[in-house]
Design a protein that fits this description.
This protein has 8 helices and 2 strands.
Length: 186
Amino acid sequence: MVALGSLWIPILVSAVFVFLASSLVWMVLPHHQSDWQGLPGEAAILEALRKSGVKRGQYRFPYAAGRKAMQSPEMKKKLEEGPAGLLVLWEKWDISMGKMMAGWFLYLVVVSIFVAYLTGHVLGSGTPYLSVFRVAGTAAVLAYAGSLVPNSIWWGRSWSMTWKEVGDGVLYGLLTAGVFGWLWPR
């Protein structure tokens, strides 16, 4: 067993490596460019949203407040006619990229802390690189990629986007595993 306090270097270095890799993945590589597309008639839709006074939040449409309302003939008709979907809305783009990047880095540190906790709990000092890589990599891949598939199953997110992000998560997990194997206490 290795104490969490003695794993701060691999925790921070792995977070930095994944932060840099994710920056390259999203800013340099072209594979995520097709993940989103614009709405046809965007100007009219934006104007309708402005006029409606809809506030920042998550929305499902058509919306039914509860199981009974979902079974009503009116709701069934709305669902058959379409469109149906999910909408995450900001009143305006007031999000600071710096704040988002800081939040992302904090998340990476938290993932690395959990990877360190698990790996340190099951392996001791002096464990060979590949054994550390295997345990840390399994935990990190699960953390970075494991929760993405349900978004396509339950919420209709495109499978191509999900599989690309799962691939990114595997890359991040392997980087984390490599750093932990490299910097594991001897």
